[in-house]
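Data deposition worksheet. Section B asks for the primary sequence of the deposited chain exactly as it was used as input, without tags or linkers unless they were present during the calculation. Section C holds the resulting structure in token form. Section D is free text for depositor observations; keep each observation to a single sentence. Incomplete worksheets are returned to the depositor.
Section A, Depositor: J.P.
Section B:
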Amino acid sequence: MTLHITDEATDRLVRLLAQKKGKTIEETVRAAITEQIERELKRRPSSKPLRAIRNALSAASKRTARRRIKRFEVSGSFSSKPNWPE
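Section C:
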């Protein structure tokens, strides 16, 4: 799935925030959206559509974490060099 940002100012802001936080653009956008949804849920706790979005984001975060764990698994042998993320 792709998110295409055509507004240069928005692109610049996301990249700046990602750089300052030391995170990827994807992680930065997800965190910003999640924080905004949480604020909305606190203002309107009965909002079912936002709760559904929050649950979907949570599930997506878990899938991403599982993929990263698989990608950066360390070899079972202590004599070999670990495959650390760059």
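Section D:
Helices lie at 8-21, 25-43, 48-71.
Residues 48-71 form the longest helix (24 residues).
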